[in-house]
Amino acid sequence: FKGILRDFGNKARYLLPQSQMNLRIPFVCLCVQYVNYRMFCEPMLTSISGSRDPLFLTGVTFPPEYPASPETLVKLTVYDVRDKARDNVSKPQSVSFLGSATFSVSDLLRSKDDQLTLNLRSSDGVLAVGTVLVSRVNMGEMEEGDMDHITADVQQAQKCTLVCESSQGTPIDKDNSPLTGAVFKNPVCKVYKFQTVDSKWMLVREQMEECTLSFSIPRQLLHLYIQEDMRRIQELRDLGELSPHWDNLRKEVIGRYGQVIAAYQETLAELNKITGPSFKPSCSKAQRYLEFIPINLHTQRMRVTCPRQTDAFYDVITVGAPAAHFQGFKGGGLQRLLSRHEAEKKSTAYQCIYYSPEHTAKAQEVLHSVGHLQPLISGLADQLLQAAQQHSMAGLREALKTLAGKTEQFVHALKDELVKSALLALHTAQPGYVTKNQNQTLPGHQDSPVAPLKRQDSIPCHKEYDEEEWDRVWADVAKSLNCVIAMVDKLQEQEPINNNQEQPIPKQVLADVITSHNPEGDWREQLCPLVVRLKECVAEVVVRARRAMTFVLLQEAACSIPQGLFLKQRRDVVFSQALAALACGFVMRLYAGMEDKGFLRQLHLVGLVAQFESLLSTYSEEIGMLEDMEVGISDLHRVAFKITQAKTDDPCDLQPVVIGRRDHYTVEVPLPRLAFQTLPHEIKEGKALQVYPVLFNVGINEQQTIADRFGDISLQERINQRNFEILDSYYKSLSLPCFQTQMDLKDLLGTLGQNVVTKKRKNVEILWLAGTICRRLNGIRFTSCKSAKDRTSMSVTLEQCALLRDEHQLNKDYFIRALDCMRREGCRIENVQKNIKCRKYAFNMLQLMAFPKIYRPPEGTYGKVDS
Q1: What is the dihedral of CA 402, 404, 410, 413, to 10 degrees?
Q2: Between 635 and 31, residue with greater pLDDT
Q3: Which end of the chain is less congested by CB atoms within 10 angstroms, N or C?
Q4: What percent of the residues of the chain are helix, what percent strand, and what percent coil, each to the nearest 5?
Q5: Which residues are catalytic?
Q6: Contact in structure between 656 and 669 (CB atoms under 8 Å)
Q7: What is the DSSP secondary-structure string of 176-229?
């Protein structure tokens, strides 16, 4: 393998302070060209104090398809940049070639002290015009004296520098373990060395990765959406014969559901064709077939290594604001559209019975409960009979205990006035129903018997309908259970006394007296009729309850046509994006905390905070995005996580799986057997793990300036105040010792509470405080703007440098240099390149004048580009 070398003189750029314009300071440009493949790394654009013996540190990227080998040749070319124009860093007045040198990777690997001293040669290769020292930096553990050989002049000149970059993660730690490799792909790494306040050196490693869940979670959700809507159509058909008016409404609702299913099937088919990168670039945010995919979802981890200290990790997930970009924001976002639609539905619900959102949510909950509990009760009843057949009293008692618990839960779910009133409403919607006083007809439906009433008439009432029938039906379930319990007690009395016998189950008050004609006979024969009766009663209740709740949902859909189903589609889109991001963050946090017993205990006892930081403005289209995002993040409270044991260690078996329906989803996260066995017992037993999503927003761009002065920022204020209350409530629910000793957490929450009610423009301290509190609470951090590309990059790099300063003693005098270095050369500029094929943040000078100064990128890294 041989490298072909070529100069890229026009790529050499360097910015000098005005006071140093007369200095002749060269810049080193490292270029690598392979057979049939050319790739180079652009040099850093950063300021440097004058020095005639400077240290230049940059990196060369070796792509995975052409990895470096001992024979790889690297050519260093030195240029002299003079009289650079201050106002245009891309067009220096004079760039002249000084010299070049070539070495192979094997030369560097075999060199003494990991250093090569090379002679710079003129263009004809004859004259020696100087020397250059090339050092191989050990990216493993740092020793205190690693950089002692650097001269004082160089230390003064270059305090924070990028020293290595790679498009591939190197397997030096758990960042790149097989566990993470199953979900996180295509890492980009940057490594820096920064000086601390005590003149020591820290090693900082950034790693940015794509997440396979960007596509897999939306695909699974689309499949579940389709299944759920198909079930809904079948349930509507199972309502039986209805009067003409209601039948017409049912047909119209079924037709609308069919349209949604067809659209979702088409989208799913297109998504299944996609291969390649595991993220949706920002330029594709309005594409129809990609609307369920989160925008520019990436993970970013900063690892900090300091002498004689344990390595520290800081994670953040960056994602574009979950919003329905394809559908647009002409009428606002979900929060405004849902409120407006609910008001319109109340005023125009003359064709159907109006049920509030709380009623429809309750109906969905009842449907979910009966659908989940009926098969459980049936299975437990069979287990009870099996234990009776085996003549196992211990097994009988255990099965009965579980059966009684699930049956009582089933009955409790149905003891709701909504079910009784919905059964009455369904009765009035059947053919031939006419009120006793008069025949009523609806406007526009003169030929149909009418039971639906105007909004003010509420739920219909008819004294000929037996209102006590429903109470008797579900009461029969309780009576049947009591009969089963009484029979088990009788069977237990027939057993000989055993000193080791457990305490018998307390007897229940029976509705009926149970006698046995064959007390000494087979246990199964005596129990079977009672168990069968219990299952029949449960089945009868399920049929009635399911039809009643389906009728409620029919009203909700009928009152909503067509706008309601469009809003449901919009909500599905936004939730899909939000859940993909949340699942990515949960998996990353779980993998990082597998060895932290305190974190795992917190996880199963109280759950985790997921803190979303948003930089959207409250003006123009972005206010619609924020309204979408608010609803999408709030809907995440319907999600729980469960850790399972993977079938194999194959990456395909380590992909999270989503189950459930719109009112509640569970994300199952599989772990390899060895990792799973280290978890606490409660997690291994399948306990649902809760996540508490919170959202804080502070707009920082020029549109927010307009909103602050002339617009309305009440949405932002309401979001911040409401989510502060959620965060504060979560903190108060913590009773773990590790948090009770952190008195500063309470102070931080108090300060945050003061800030969210303070009238202050672009109060970014809200975001800093919320992020700090989230990290102290072992939470999951997210940062978003419209595309997670520009403003997000400014926020992530600021957060990283603030952590280096506050937690790792980064020299404060060089805080801005470190910040500029990360923004110029770090993972975030690579993210920009991945999204828009250009290494410039999409800001112009006018926009940046409105930004808080600390959020402005360095000169030369921004320009007006399409995003």
Answers
A1: -110
A2: 635
A3: N
A4: 50, 15, 35
A5: 785
A6: yes
A7: GSHHHHTTEEEEEEEEEEEEBTTS-EEEEEEEEEEETHHHHHHHHHHHHHHHHH
